[in-house]
Structure of Gypsy retrotransposon integrase-like protein 1:
Amino acid sequence: MPMMSIAETWAKKVHNPLHTSYTSQLTVFGRATEKVESLIGAILSPSTPFVVPEDPEVTRQMLVDLANHARTLDRQLSLARGTLVSEDTFHPNRPFPQTTSTTPSPNSEAEAEDSEDSLDTITTDFQKLLITHNQRHYGRSSDFVFLQYAFEAGRIPRMLQPLTGTVFASFRRPEFWHRLPFQRICDTPDPGYPLVFPDPDLLQDLIRIYFSTINCILPLLHRPTFERSVAAGLHFHDRPFAFTVLAVCAIASRQSDDPRNLYDGTDSCHSLGWKWFQQIPLVQLKFTDQPTLYDVQSCILTVLFLRMTSTPDSVWILTGVGIRYAQEMGAHRKKPKGHKRTIEDELWNRAFWILLVTDFSTSIAWGRPSIVSPDNYDADLPADCDDEYWEHSEFQQPEGTPSVISCFRTYCKLMEIAGSVQRTLYGIGKSPSSVPGSQAQTEAVLELDSALNQFVNDIPSHLKWDKPQSNFLFYWQSCILNSMVHWVRIRVHRPFILRAIHSSSSDSDTDNGIPSQTICRTAARSMVLIAEALHARRLSEGRKTSIEMAPSLISPLLIASLVFLVIRKEMEYVDRCMALVKWYEPRYQSAGRIVDSLNAIIAIVQNSDERVDQFPQVAQQPIPSENQVFPVPDQQQSTFDWSYLQPQPQSQPPLATQDTIWPASSFYGSNGDGHSQENWDSFMAMLDGQGMDLGFQ
């Protein structure tokens, strides 16, 4: 570049100072990078001597820009080497590198190799954003990989890529990403250390909250026997039961406004429950004694508490430990003919099914194999009988009275379908149906989709979404159950939506004759409408908060957001998802992490597409007030055609008036196996299980 052009460039820059916001940084970064590279080229030119500008201010600006450029490169190099470590993360030794499985047939080897190369490319680029030493495996079905799709869909220009890590860091609000001082886990406690319980009145209140907001959705405990045991003071003498009681208190504390649940010395709502939970050993391994029912219940409650915190990493492992406990006691087997059911039998059965559905949902969300498969358990579903009828009617629900537990029984069947989705579509390549784009995979998708349709038809009438429900608990259960149906349906069609976007026909969203993109958009949109309808009813009935609904809504809303970000249509639904998730930020760190991460992705892809003007509004949305009413239809209006192949009903809210199809990269054709990913400050470990997601709590 001629010297005059460089001087003019920097002179103009001197008289037009840069804005300080990240929006402005993103806007000018590409141009600034080009100018610096031109300057470097001029200085190092072997043919044209470089002439220093006469204006000292221009010269100074050149030096400042060169210094800033050098600093940026140094930071990016440090990130790539993994030397920048967040102060709130642990640094265990890295596991052995993951190996990639071979594909089942010669015809698919080349395709699989290309897919894995494509996934390797984006994985390498994406890892530049990650800043911890931890490394975990996330497979093809995982939300981590789906987040990568959303990121890659933005087609980030090369000149902007060095700044993406800075942008992600700028959105990380410390209160959601740091492991806070009170978030300590009891690993190896002294078996004789004294336990501290809530005051008697607070203990009773927390037990009431637990059974009215948690156990009615995930029915682990039998309320009459649990309350009798507490009243008798069993928790003062039986340590395993004491840990179960403390775990109940810890979980219920998140729904309580009593300041006595806060950790001593802090007023942060993120500390709710930790003063009770810290006393519970993370894993009570007993290699000589057989596990007790209380051991298993405590393990499950630990999973429920940790999955919505900044320390969810152990949840997947704890679920496996709990399953081994249950298998050791035979809870996975059907009782022999003629066996008379007891309360303890039923509690073991409930515990096993909770562990089973947790394993299924967690495994598909993280892209890891389940510890249990259908051919090694035959336990009956939990009895279709509510707690109050266990002791005096031999587990017989009164005729004509819908049971509260019927929702969980139905959910168990749904998660068995989810487990089949994981094994059939997201295997490591040994099954024909897991080969990307194969006829076997197409047939498997159609079969699984048909199974979901049949499942919807079989949902108990009081839980169907297209029927008005005056009972708020049944309405809430219906919202959760139907939202999770869409969650599973997206998992079924996800292998095809990326291939459809990459289709040469810009006006077609089909792949192998299946309109998977439309199906996923409809499912994602429906999850948003269900969540909005639930919030609207909650507020219209004068209920104070929706905090207890967080675990059952956050994961579907996250998946819905990623669908819209990947497909690049109806992007206003992403804003609506984040507005809902913001409700839960005051008490759930995982909610804040999701909002921060989605905001960062939106900022990057919008600015890479020169849409800077939209960035500030998205990044700075206020937390909704309790008086906010969402403009959504009622329950019946929020339904949609389950065939999802027909035009949307007129009762749906108006859709986006203009569909924008953003350019797709070759990554949309990638269907390679999962790869080991550095753990992004436990964010992806928290996806769906909160990350984790049961979809329930």
